[in-house]
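From: lab user (bench 3)
To: helpdesk
Subject: output format question, protein + pyridoxal-5'-phosphate

Hello, I'm new to running complex predictions and I'm not sure whether the block I got back is the full result or only part of it. Here's what I submitted:
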Amino acid sequence: MTIDLRSDTVTKPSKDMLDAMHQAPVGDDVFQEDPSINALEAFASTMFGKENALFCPSGTMTNQIAIRCHTQPGDEVICDELSHIYQYEGGGIASNSGASVKLLQGDRGRITASMVEAVIHNPDDIHKPLSRLVVLENTANRGGGSCYAFNDIIEIGTVARQHGLSFHIDGARLFNALVAKGETALQYGEAFDTISICLSKGLGAPVGSLLLGDAHFIKKARRIRKVFGGGMRQAGSLAAAGLYALQHNIERLDTDHAHAKAIEAMLKEKSFVKEVVPVETNIVIAECKPDFNLPGFISSMNDKGVLFFAISPTRFRMVTHLDIHADMINQLEDILKQYN
Ligand SMILES: *Cc1c(COP(=O)(O)O)cnc(C)c1O
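Helpdesk reply: Thanks, we reran it on our side. This is the complete output you should expect:
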C-alpha cells in the first residue's frame, strides 16, 4: 500500500464526486453561461457573505488576480516572508503587477497588526512606494499549517483600513483553519476585502480555486482573469467537483487533523527528530538532528511505500488528506518502528 504524504493535492476524485462531474450541465463561462460554474460561484458567495465569486484554474491565479486588482505598479504589498504569494508564485507580484513587496518576519508565517503598522509608509513621503495591500495566509503552509487567532486578523484588518490599504487572504487551506478553530466562513467574509480559496487541496477536487469579493472587484477580476489566460469555456464539470467538495468535504477535515496529530506523536518519539513544528491542522514539519542522514531516511521510507520529501537539508514534511485512512496511519506507525 502506498501512503502518499507528499501533499494534499494528490487526492483522487471519489465516485460521488465523479458522478457530480458527469451530470454537470455546461456552457461557455466566458459568456457567463456555464450553469455549474454560476452555481459554484453563487454557493461560495453565500457561504462567505460576499457579493460575488470567480472560478479560476489555480490558487496562484486567484492570488495574482487579487494583487493586480488591488495595486498599481510600484505599490507595496505587505506579507510574511514565508508567504506562498512571495515564495511560490514565480515572482508574479513583480511580473504580473509590477508591485514591490515588504516582507515581515512573522511567527510560523503569521504576522501581527503592530508589525504591519510599523512598515506602512507615510503616503506623503515621495521617496517611498505607496503601501497598498496586506496579504495574510491561513493556514500558513510554510508555518506548518499554523492558524491565526481570529482576533489578530481583526486587528490587522483595522490597521489596514485605517491607512486605506486593502486586505486579502490566501486561503488555500482556509477550511482547515475554520475546522481547527471552530470559525465560520462568514467571519472571514466580513474581515477581508477579498478571499482566495482552493478546492484542490484538502477539499479534494481535481482543480480550481475561487476568488471572492464585492461585485465591483469581481467585475475587474473577471477582466484580469481573461488577460492572464484563465477565462475557461465549458468548464462546468470542474466546477461541479468543486461544489461537491464544498458541500461534502469540509467537516471531515478534522479527520486529517487527527491523523496529522498522530504522526506528530510518532515522530516526537524518534531519536533523530530534534523537534516537530506544533501541528495545528494537516501539515507536519519535523526538524532532524544535524548529523542525521535525512536523504537516506527518505529514500528508505519511499522504498517502503511512504512518500514524502525534504523541504530543507534538515526538515521534512508530511501532509494528511482525504485519501489517507486510519489503516495507513497504523501502517506508518509500524514502518516507523524500524527506525530509531
Ligand atoms: C497551493 C497553495 C496556493 C495555490 O496553489 P496552486 O497550485 O496555484 O493552486 C496558494 N497558497 C498556498 C498557501 C498554497 O499552499
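A quick orientation on your result: The chain has a mean pLDDT of 98. Let us know if anything else is unclear.
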